[in-house]
Model the fold of this input.
Amino acid sequence: MSRHAAHFVMDRLLYGPIIRSDLIPQRTLVVAFFTYLIKDNVESKQAVLIENLLEMILDVQLDQSCWVRNIEVQGLGYTPENLNKELVVRYCNQILGILMNCLDYHNLGNESELILESLQSFSKLLNSLPGFKFSSFQVTGAVRIKLLFSQEDPGLRRSSIQLLGDLATSLGQKTNLEVFKEQNQENLITLLLHLCDPDVYVVKASKSTIQKVGPYLDFPEVYRMIQECLGDDTDLMFTDFIKELIKRIGFMESMISRLFGDQIEDELV
Done:
């Protein structure tokens, strides 16, 4: 065993028990230290030691401190970026379960940072495992993030909208596609509204997500239009875009016109 590996083992032995300390500052510091080791991919060749470290981070999911859980989720977000794929796949469902629990929020004000970390870590995990069977997480995740699209915090808006797109690109054969399609159709109006969001990064996330969910809207012509009009380098003429969209999705005409104002409605007459 190398000298660095030996130090790694000693750190684990010394700090591991403190992760269950009664004192929140001690638990916070230990989880932050273990998260740092995951981020830096310390002694990546020592697979058993890294796996043990990951298990200890996973073990604090029920910690009463929001700070501790926030750092834990941040650490879980580093796993797909810094650990080997085999280890990430082995613990994928357990990590997803923790992230999903964080999105089952009850106090948005106090838990906003934790929710934001969960959204970002969720996206990282989905993007790191293309083709992985994520079971039913997509539908449940899409339902839980709906309320976050309209939050005042632009970070929550951006990350939740981005996650919806990442969920769409990770769909597998076992996913309930009909239910997911329903969620996309219900979210379409909200996504369109955010094309005018005051935060430029929310607008960018909205464009990307509309493109990703487009195939599940069951309107091929609309999907082609989305691909043509919502590219990153495309200057969107919003009013013209919505007018054309209304024409192509007849059943949504009254709803879209009501939401986007009299200007569009007058020009359609």
In short: Residues 61 and 69 are 6 Å apart (CA to CA). Confidence is low (pLDDT under 50) at residues 1-6, 262-269.
